[in-house]
Design a protein that fits this description.
234 residues; TIM Barrel; 2 domains; 6 helices
């Protein structure tokens, strides 16, 4: 009886191992497809990337060769943070034939005037640049000052007025799902929206998007790390 039970247990393990080996190629193929997925270019012909210093070296010419038409660079953060490689990356993007844009990571806990000054110092006034983008991800409830949340709309308006005067174009608001759920600002600002949703078009802002981060972990031979693949509304 013991030998028979041992035989059945060994047989189950062999079957389980065979099934695992059969599933591994399918899982690997699925991962590869997800990592390299971009939306259909017949529906969305203008596609590009969002880059930051954390992405490490990126071959912008290789990105352009694979179909990227534009690149946004995280240029400034809060009142003092800056990407020291921004100017070089901007020049490299223009040389690669990409349309280039600058993004500011907004800090609801920092004064609007100081943040606008940081952006203006970092980003040149250049008619070739795409409209400035403002990332809204950190919620104001994390601020030490409890009145930051109530004054958020006014401070953000001040910041937008100053950077738009510098850029000569209305800004695009890159609002995260968490920020929108907490502050519900999309309906209060008449600006283009940059929304996020891997593989599925996002609708959490209640109105159409202008830019869409469609794959936040896009793999490309142009970089060693995953990149954020972005799509423009046709």
């Amino acid at each position: 009886m013991g030998r028979r039970r041992a035989w059945w247990q060994a047989r189950r393990w062999r079957v389980a191992l065979a099934l695992l080996l059969l599933c591994l190629p399918a899982a690997a193929w699925g991962w590869w497809q997800a990592a390299h997925w971009t939306p259909d270019r017949t529906a969305f012909p203008v596609q590009g990337v969002l880059l930051s210093a954390a992405d490490g070296p990126v071959d912008l010419r290789a990105l352009a060769a694979t179909g990227a038409r534009f690149a946004y660079l995280e240029a400034s953060r809060g009142a003092s943070g800056r990407d020291p490689r921004f100017a070089d990356a901007l020049a490299a993007g223009h040389a690669a034939g990409l349309s280039m844009g600058a993004l500011h990571l907004y800090d609801p806990c920092a004064p609007a005037d100081a943040q606008a000054a940081n952006f203006v110092i970092t980003v040149p006034r250049d008619a070739r640049l795409l409209p400035p983008a403002v990332a809204l991800a950190r919620t104001a409830d994390a601020c030490a000052d409890p009145v930051a949340a109530t004054g958020l709309q006014g401070e953000l308006t001040t910041f937008l007025n100053q950077i738009e005067r510098h850029a000569g174009a209305p800004a695009i608001l890159a609002i995260s799902p968490e920020f929108e759920a907490h502050h519900q600002l999309a309906a209060r600002f008449d600006r283009g929206l940059w929304l996020t949703g891997d593989w599925l078009q996002p609708d959490y802002a209640g109105r159409p998007w202008t830019l869409w981060t469609a794959n936040a972990a896009y793999r490309s031979e142009a970089a060693d790390t995953p990149l954020r693949w972005v799509v423009a509304q046709p």
